[in-house]
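Sequence design from tokenized structure. All designs in this work follow the same two-part layout: the structure record, then the generated sequence. An example of the structure record is given first.
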């Protein structure tokens, strides 16, 4: 569980986060959504320790990040997996080398232990027989799978995903969403996803927070979205004709 309390963050005169408080639950896919400039990327980077909040605290299972020593912060980082927007794979490395990189950097595992773990996670994300290939030989969806495999190879407690569906076709995006959701439940990870993809909200939005101009304007589940009267979230979500049709259908079922 990650608990955020009264986070504020400014850059110069621009106040980007304005007292955000929420809890990201373990074993669930927690989504951060909002328009460009809403503060969602700054919030994600604050969770990762890239930005230091001006006020407030961020706790990882009771450990307040700002109170940790440098050694404790380094130890915490080994518990974190990250899926970057552009996958951020090393072009000169094979799939196996990309996935094994965190283990070589941050663990004391032997070569045989690394090989065993790498093979396991590559199989888990359904990339059998792709281990010897380079990223340039893979489709966008396969590259995302490699990025997910690399993110979970260290058995992280916390998984962060920045726009994991960026650049993917809708069908592949759903596959990636479902894979992240399955892994979250399977390994009981606290997963936080920064996304603009409303299909992701529909597919895997177990906990959603909506930021508007740096304020947490709404939070709930994908089911709650269809029933809320909160104008901030409805104006954002139901600008899509698809969502208008879905809400109409949901209301009829209720």
């Amino acid at each position: 569980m990650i608990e955020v309390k009264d986070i504020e963050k400014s850059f110069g005169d621009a106040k980007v986060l304005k007292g955000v408080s929420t809890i990201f639950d373990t074993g669930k896919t927690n989504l951060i959504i909002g328009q460009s400039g809403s503060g969602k990327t700054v919030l994600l980077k604050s969770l990762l320790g890239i930005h230091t909040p001006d006020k407030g605290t961020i706790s990882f299972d009771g450990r307040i990040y700002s109170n940790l020593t440098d050694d404790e912060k380094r130890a915490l980082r080994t518990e974190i997996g990250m899926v970057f927007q552009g996958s951020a794979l090393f072009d000169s490395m094979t799939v196996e080398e990309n996935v094994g990189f965190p283990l070589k950097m941050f663990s004391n595992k032997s070569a045989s232990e690394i090989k065993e773990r790498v093979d396991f996670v590559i199989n888990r994300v359904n990339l059998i027989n792709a281990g010897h290939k380079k990223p340039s030989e893979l489709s966008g969806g396969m590259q995302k799978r490699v990025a997910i495999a690399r993110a979970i190879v260290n058995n992280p407690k916390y998984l962060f995903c920045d726009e994991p569906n960026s650049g993917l076709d809708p069908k592949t995006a759903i596959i990636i969403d479902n894979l992240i959701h399955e892994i979250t439940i399977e390994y009981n990870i606290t997963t936080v996803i920064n996304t603009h993809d409303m299909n992701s909200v529909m597919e895997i939005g177990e906990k959603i927070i909506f930021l508007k101009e740096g304020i947490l304007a709404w939070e709930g589940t994908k089911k709650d979205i269809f029933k809320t009267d909160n104008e901030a979230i409805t104006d954002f979500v139901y600008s899509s004709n698809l969502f208008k049709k879905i809400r109409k259908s949901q209301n009829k079922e209720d």
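DSSP finds ten helices and ten strands in the chain. We note this feature because it recurs in several other targets discussed in the main text.
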